Amino acid sequence: xxxxxxxxxxxxxxxxxxxxxxxxxxxxxxxxxxxxxxxxxxxxxxxxxxxxxxxxxxxxxxxxxxxxxxxxxxxxxxxxxxxxxxxxxxxxxxxxxxxxxxxxxxxxxxxxxxxxxxxxxxxxxxxxxxxxxxxxxxxxxxxxxxxxxxxxxxxxxxxxxxxxxxxxxxxxxxxxxxxxxxxxxxxxxxxxxxxxxxxxxxxxxxxxxxxxxxxxxxxxxxxxxxxxxxxxxxxxxxxxxxxxxxxxxxxxxxxxxxxxxxxxxxxxxxxxxxxxxxxxxxxxxxxxxxxxxxxxxxxxx
Length: 301
Known about the structure:
Layout: E1 12-13, E2 25-29, E3 38-44, H1 51-58, H2 60-67, E4 70-75, H3 99-115, E5 117-127, H4 129-140, E6 147-151, H5 162-169, H6 177-186, E7 196-202, H7 211-221, E8 232-236, E9 239-245, E10 251-258, E11 265-267, E12 282-284, H8 289-296
Parallel strand pairs: 3-4, 3-5, 5-6, 6-7, 7-10, 11-12
Antiparallel strand pairs: 1-2, 2-4, 8-9, 9-10
Helix pairs in contact: 6-7
């Protein structure tokens, strides 16, 4: 990652949060216009990335200024993973009450207490290993989140070790749809209402095959009782958006496959609505996943 200039260092080091069993670092960004009872978005960077770098590329802190959103950036330490990847495939880091998920849960509790955050408006998003860890957080702590957005990620518990993880990333094997659904249900004692799910993936991703995006959708379809084809398909900024609505008409799952895009987070840096900066894994494709995810969660109104 290029070193960030002073003007870009927007995040504040979070000194203390719980027992931190996953030995993670944490940064926050609380905009000046953050209202009492405002929302929180937890943002998980990808492999080889830092919290600062992901914030700069995705533009989340710029949107936070615009809309009054608190941000929490859990960050992996190289001592845990040499590539700075979240360990989403390790059994000690993919279960409730343990490891990295518990560290992230403790960070959230601390931020909620410190900044008067509305506990009913907490969301989580991440890319690559951060996307896979987003799947972990949504499954292990579903009562915490109103919604989650998984970018270039993998389904919860689709792999249980590094070798399986490498194979799943290439789009091979993996649990059946029934098993994927069961893994989420067994990850906690929660019984709903479940977090909404937003899935983003590059159509030409050769690092994490986009078969994983479809698997994530199927993992959550039965839970949301929206099995089968999408309720509707629309076009947004030139890309197809598939939407599944529940019996009450609420949009509970959406999926974007960005044709021609490789491995990374889709951004649109230019124009009035532009956010972020292009970088390795922060890909300028003319659609801002950050802005559209926030819209899906009702944070831009």
